[in-house]
Write a structure and sequence with these properties.
- By secondary structure, this protein is α/β, with parallel strands linked by helices.
- It folds into two domains: 3-238, P-loop containing nucleotide triphosphate hydrolases (Rossmann fold), CATH 3.40.50.300; 253-343, CobW-like, C-terminal domain (Hypothetical Protein Yjia, Chain: A,domain 2), CATH 3.30.1220.
- It contains twelve helices and twelve strands.
- The chain has helices at 21-30, 47-55, 79-91, 110-115, 120-123, 137-141, 149-158, 168-177, 192-205, 222-225, 267-280, 336-343; strands at residues 8-14, 37-41, 67-69, 99-103, 126-136, 181-185, 211-214, 254-261, 283-290, 297-304, 307-315, 324-331.
- The chain has a seven-stranded parallel beta sheet with strand order 3-2-4-1-5-6-7, sandwiched between helices.
- It is globular, with a radius of gyration of 20 Å.
């Protein structure tokens, strides 16, 4: 394979809010040793904060334009309209990016995102170098999977795009189950007994042998973190999680496409049509935005089955075309023409 066709390795960093993901990535960017990096940040709510923290590194290894922020929920469910364009943007950079780091939302399930690397628009260009789970060592030593459970609950309540409402202990187990490396962070807050308790909690959740490294303030050797060379997407089906049988997260069994919407006169009409499509077609989820005549704000639309939520999220930019885009996700065999015709009224 020629250098120009070589797949770019991607490291997926998962872990709860407050575990230290952003701090770890900032450390990696500051110690890249000349490697050209890019980052995709997918942190609901705090995405702007995380992005600004990372951009503040000021390191030539990852200039500001190589940091792409996605604030619209689960990456695995926005492959067509967000993840692929983000990769396109990064892979078009000159000089070419050598490694991509993806920071997932704190409540994300990593397996569906790894499965998305089998998508035709993705698999020939990138590979999963490894999945890194960052855990809060101090919390684990105290018998909790996260340090600030109230903040985690608030994040879950605020994230209307979140598809699962499982106990956070189960989300923790799913994150650990997909890991190729576990980073036990906040070692500086623990004594030897605390470290032992935290490691035991991780090992109790690990379904297989995975390396655990203990660090303080996210200071992991970048050379050890970037370069695992696992190709996780080729083994991901062997990593059993609690959500393996949920259809909306089985990328082998569903497809997606995008419908472009003209300006709407009545938002209630499109909401009703979306809800109806969940009943008449194999549509599991729809998500996107629309322009409403006479409204300066963009209408954000999200639907899981017949449950549809919508609200105005931000003003339209002066240079933006006032038209909507709605991604439709469903089981394979969707009647795309019929669905698009229904949405367009």
């Amino acid at each position: 394979m020629s250098a120009s066709l070589k797949r770019v390795p991607c490291t997926i960093v998962t872990g709860f809010l407050g575990s230290g993901k952003t701090t770890l990535i900032r450390h990696v960017l500051a110690n890249a040793n000349g490697r050209r990096l890019a980052v995709i940040v997918n942190e609901f709510g705090d995405v702007g904060i995380d992005g600004e923290i990372l951009k503040g590194c000021g390191d030539s290894a990852c200039p500001e334009e190589n940091i792409v922020e996605l604030a619209n929920g689960c990456l695995c469910c926005t492959v067509a309209d967000e993840f692929v364009p983000a990769l396109d943007q990064i892979l078009a950079r000159e000089p070419q990016v050598e490694h991509i780091v993806i920071e997932t939302s704190g409540l994300a399930l990593p397996k569906p995102l790894v499965q998305a690397f089998h998508w035709p628009a993705i698999k020939s260009r990138v590979t999963v170098d490894g999945v890194v789970a960052v855990v809060d060592g101090a919390a684990l030593a105290n018998g909790q999977v996260a340090g600030d459970l109230e903040a985690l609950s608030a994040q879950r309540a605020a994230d209307t795009a979140l598809d699962h409402d499982d106990p956070i202990e189960e989300v923790f187990e799913d994150q650990i189950a997909c890991a190729d490396l576990v980073v036990l962070n906040k070692r500086d807050l623990l004594d030897a007994s605390g470290i032992d308790k935290a490691v035991a909690a991780i090992e109790g959740a690990l379904p297989r042998a995975v390396r655990i490294v203990t660090v303080a303030e996210g200071r992991v050797d970048a050379a050890a973190l970037l370069g695992l060379g696992v190709g996780t997407e080729d083994d991901i089906e062997n990593r059993r999680t609690r959500h393996d049988f949920e259809p909306e997260h089985d990328h082998d069994d569903f497809e997606s496409f995008v419908v472009t919407l003209p300006e709407l006169g009545d938002p209630a009409a499109i909401v009703a049509r979306i809800a109806g499509l969940a009943e008449t077609h194999k549509v599991l989820r729809m998500k996107g935005f629309a322009a409403v005549k006479g409204k300066s704000m963009r209408l954000l639309i999200q639907a899981v089955g017949p449950r549809v939520s919508h609200y105005y999220d931000r003003p339209w930019g002066l240079s933006e075309t006032r038209q909507g885009n709605l991604v439709v996700i469903g089981l394979k065999g969707l009647d795309r023409d019929a669905i698009a015709k229904s949405l367009l009224g």
